[in-house]
Amino acid sequence: MSRPKGLNGTAAAVLAYLDTGPQSGWDIATGLQILIGEFWNITPSQVYRELRTMADQGLVTAGPAGARDRRPYNITAAGRDALSAWKDEPLERDVVRIPLLLRMFLEFTAQPDSRRLDRLVHQYRALHSQQLAGYETKLLEFVQAGLPEAHLVRYGLRHEQAILRWLDDFPKADTSKSAHHPTAQEPTSKRSRRSPA
Questions:
Q1: Which among 50, 55, 121, 145 could disulfide-bond with 11, CB atoms 3.0 to 4.6 Å apart, if both were Cys?
Q2: Total domain count for the chain?
Q3: Helices in the chain by DSSP H: which ranges?
């Protein structure tokens, strides 16, 4: 058995889910995707990996395999202690990966294609309009049920609203002006020097 280390967010979510009762890896992955998938990306492979690691550390125990070879897991006392310790840790910075902004940045480093930019904006607007509608429906359901998680849904709703407002303000591309950004091989200071006469 290896010595337990600090938990990551996915491992903590798995332990919290197991704290409600024994669950198979598949059930954990499916349940967490429903509960937190809107704000925390999680896959079955991640869940199974964390379960193997935490079983080796004594944070969970695995029961005998049942139907479809699914094995129920239980949280241990050490697992509850690790989960409690994780909840007291300082927050980490958000991990940001926004495909639209990457696409736009790469477009602006060359000669922008206005049609491609318009297509990206249209696709992004359709995607986030759909997600906003989903949050609006979910918020109404949570508020009517008196669930405190409604405030988490408001975060998602306002996030989608902010994205759509940003898209509304997005200027039409001026293909006559393309910004040339310095690269790692071409520092700004070097580019600005004049060649000797």
A1: 50
A2: 2
A3: 9-18, 25-36, 44-56, 77-87, 99-108, 114-145, 150-168, 188-191
pLDDT grade for 8, boundaries at 50, 70 and 90? very high
Residues 105 and 77 in one domain: no
Structural domain for 112, as ranges: 99-177
69, amino acid identity: D
Compute the residue count for the chain: 197
Q: Tell me the pLDDT tens digit for each residue of 54-78.
A: 999 999 999 887 777 788 999 999 9
Residues sharing a CB contact under 8 Å with residue 109, sequence separation 6 or more, in sequence order: 178, 179, 180, 181
Whether residues 171 and 110 share a domain: the answer is: yes
- The alpha carbon dihedral of 105, 111, 115, 116 has a sign of negative
Report whether pLDDT(184) > 70: no
